[in-house]
Every structure is written in structure tokens, then in C-alpha cells.
Write a structure and sequence with these properties.
This protein is α/β, with parallel strands linked by helices. It has helices at residues 2-10, 51-57, 76-89, 102-114, 128-136, 148-162, 174-179, 181-189, 206-221, 240-251, 259-263, 265-268, 290-299, 309-323, 329-343, 365-372, 382-389, and strands at residues 47-49, 61-66, 95-98, 118-123, 140-144, 165-166, 197-201, 229-235, 303-307, 352-357.
Length: 391
């Protein structure tokens, strides 16, 4: 009820200032009762200003929203907390999902906090650190000899057969409801003066569609007065949503919300068979929430940028050394794509920009090591150290 929410905003009851987690925005969540949520601090992550990087890039202001500081190290904790609350409110006995790692470890973490049985399907090639995290949280982990799409389809079939609660992105609408809270936080942390651009890493498209939904809700209720533009950040070898956007742009399709235009979207969606990238969290053949993602980007007047794996690895090192942020590859893609977007004129020099850091670098230490190389090695001798360091 948006009129009720407008009244809550006008009368100062929204957001709930007594809370610092996602339940600060309980009035826009599908479950309000606290007892159904996991007893963990989800959300309330920092928004870091990095003026020196903004100056180096030549833009007005730059912020990083570090959601790698959520309980399982990923923005996806927002989705899992809300999805699990819905499942518990319905009395579901088993939650399940398919994941390249982050969504699964997030669901396993939330389930562990409430004693809820959890089964997660992952592609066998998922990073070992992410699989280990799933096992530590007590999930039943099924490693599928195939792609993420194979794991997704297998999970879908088993959930249908046994009545499990399916958390899968693009299938479960409640994941978007949880993820949209990051948009509320960003705008509130900027004192309801939204940025010009929000840069979002995109695989299935659920996060960027959720950010768009949150922004649209805030605009409709008067919390913000203008809509930020969404920048879709993707790996060049897993770029189905970017390809779709570019195809629509080449065709001259109208970027409005006309019903006829949106009905055509499913038939316009691209796929990337055999997608591969170091950014495993956004490695997707067929985006499961692609239509909603494309619509959100177009409605915001946004754009898409892709970069290769080399640029993503470079961004991991740069974020650590210049912004003090340890990001996994799928999160570092936002910085790499922003740099390219500014260089190519997609993002204007006067812009205020927020880059969304969706996962901790601890999720994929191997990629981080590849990005920065090996440490110096010396004998346990002062002269050896002096020689090595050029002292």
C-alpha cells in the first residue's frame, strides 16, 4: 500500500530508526514479524566515499557500497534473509537453491542461524572457498557435473517433486524484495539525495532489477525526487544482458514503459552458451531474471559496459590498494566498468556515482592471488631483506 507508506514517510515512522539492519525497511518487506527472520545483522553496510579516486577518474563524487561485510560476505544475504523469513512464515521444512557459490552460502548461513534444513546445488567448478563455506554452515551440498544452468534446472525439478522452498534467483520473487533494501540504504546514507549512477554487477540480473525496484518505490513515495541511472557491469564473456540492451539500442526501440514494448522483451533476450569468466558469481549462460533487469536498466535511462577478465583482475588489486576494499571478481567488475564508462563518455564527468561491491574477496582468494602475484621471499637475514627491498 503505497499511500500508507507515503503517510509513514510523512509522519517520520519510515524508515524505522530504531534498527540498523534490513528490518529498518520492514514496511516494504513481504514479512514483518521479527521472529521469522534469522537472528543476524543483515544489511546496514557502509557506504565509503573515495574522493581521491573520484578526482583521479575526473568525476564529481564516488562511493563504494560494501556489501561484502554482510554475515556470509555477500549482498545475497539480504535476499536469503527475506526468502527464509517467508519460508518459515509458511511452515516450510526444507529450503533449497542453485548457486555458483554466493547465493548458496548465503542461504546456508541464514538457515544455520534458524536451524532450517538446507540443500544447495552448485556447479562442480565453483570456487573451493565457496563450497567450503556451504559445508561449514551445514548445508547438504550437491556438486553438479555441469554448468550453473544445469544446477538451476536440477534444483527446480527436485523442489517441484518434493515441495521444497526454492530460493533460486529469477524464480523466487522474494529475493528481489530482500535485495532492494540496498537501494534504500544507499539513498538514506546519501541523505535521500540519490547519485546520478549506480554501478551494479550483473549475471542473472536479479540484483540490478531489485535496485531498480527499490528506487522506483522510493520515487513513488517521495523519499527521492529523481531516478538514478543504472549501469550494468558485466564480464565480456558473460554478457547476455548487455548484448540484449545493445540490440535494443541498435533497433531504435523506444526506452519507455509502454506495454507493447515490454511484451516484446522476452523474445529479444540474448544468451551466451558456454559463458566463462573469472567472475564466477556473474557467469551465466541464460539470465534467469534478464527481462526484469533489462526493463529496470531501460526505465532508468541506464547503459551497459563490459570488460575482460584482465581488467577485472586489475580492478581487484586497485580496489585493495587505492580504496582499501577487498572485492571478489564479480564485485570488482563495477570499478573496471566504471573506469571504462567514464573513458568512453557513457558516464558524464559531473556524475555522482555509487559502485555496488556485492561480495568479499575472501570468497575467491585464488583470483586475488592471481591479481596481485606472490610475496617477496628472503633468507632470515637483515642484509637479504635490505637487498630485496632496495634499502
Amino acid at each position: 500500500d503505497r499511500e500508507h507508506l507515503r503517510r509513514e514517510v510523512r509522519e517520520g515512522r519510515f524508515p524505522d530508526r530504531a534498527r540498523s539492519d534490513i528490518r529498518r525497511y520492514a514496511a516494504v518487506l513481504p514479512v514483518a514479524e521479527e521472529q521469522f527472520f534469522p537472528p543476524l545483522r543483515v544489511g546496514g553496510t557502509p557506504l565509503y566515499a573515495r574522493p581521491h579516486l573520484a578526482a583521479a577518474l575526473g568525476i564529481s563524487e564516488l562511493f563504494f557500497k560494501d556489501d561484502g561485510l554482510n554475515p556470509s560476505g555477500s549482498l545475497k544475504d539480504r535476499a536469503s534473509a527475506v526468502a527464509l523469513a517467508v519460508a518459515r512464515a509458511r511452515g516450510v521444512s526444507m529450503v533449497a537453491g542453485a548457486s555458483t557459490g554466493n547465493a548458496g552460502s548465503s542461504m546456508a548461513c541464514m538457515a544455520a542461524a534458524t536451524g532450517t534444513p538446507c540443500t544447495i546445488f552448485v556447479p562442480a567448478a565453483a570456487p573451493e572457498a565457496k563450497i567450503a563455506q556451504l559445508l561449514v554452515f551445514g548445508a547438504r551440498v550437491v556438486a553438479v557435473r555441469g554448468s550453473y544452468d544445469d544446477a538451476f534446472d536440477l534444483c527446480l525439478k527436485l523442489c517441484g517433486k518434493y515441495g521444497w522452498f526454492n530460493r533460486n534467483t529469477g524464480y523466487n520473487p522474494f529475493t528481489r524484495e530482500g535485495k532492494k533494501t540496498v537501494a534504500y540504504e544507499i539513498c538514506e546514507q546519501l541523505r535521500w539525495e540519490p547519485p546520478d549512477w549506480i554501478v551494479v554487477p550483473v549475471g542473472d540480473g536479479n540484483i540490478i532489477s531489485a535496485v531498480g525496484k527499490g528506487l522506483e518505490e522510493m520515487l513513488a513515495t517521495g523519499l527521492i525526487r529523481r531516478m538514478p541511472r543504472l549501469l550494468c557491469a558485466q564480464a565480456a564473456t558473460s554478457d547476455a544482458i548487455s548484448r540484449t540492451l545493445w540490440k535494443i539500442g541498435r533497433s531504435g526501440a523506444e526506452r519507455t514503459s509502454g506495454a507493447a514494448t515490454w511484451r516484446e522483451l522476452p523474445g529479444l533476450m540474448e544468451s551466451v552458451p558456454g559463458a566463462h569468466t573469472v567472475a564466477d558469481s556473474i557467469c551465466v549462460d541464460r539470465p534467469r531474471d534478464g527481462v526484469a533487469a533489462v526493463r529496470a536498466i531501460l526505465e532508468s535511462g541506464g547503459a551497459a559496459v563490459t570488460v575482460d577478465d584482465g581488467a577485472i583482475l586489475q580492478a581487484i588489486a586497485e580496489l585493495g590498494r587505492k580504496a582499501a576494499i577487498f572485492a571478489e571478481p564479480a564485485a570488482a567488475v563495477t570499478w573496471a566498468c566504471l573506469r571504462k564508462a567514464v573513458d568512453t563518455g557513457v558516464v558524464e564527468k559531473s556524475a555522482r556515482v555509487v559502485c555496488l561491491i556485492t561480495g568479499s574477496g575472501l570468497k575467491d582468494v585464488a583470483s586475488a592471488q592471481h591479481a596481485v602475484g606472490k610475496p617477496l621471499q628472503v633468507e632470515p637475514d637483515v642484509e637479504a631483506v635490505e637487498k630485496c627491498l632496495g634499502l
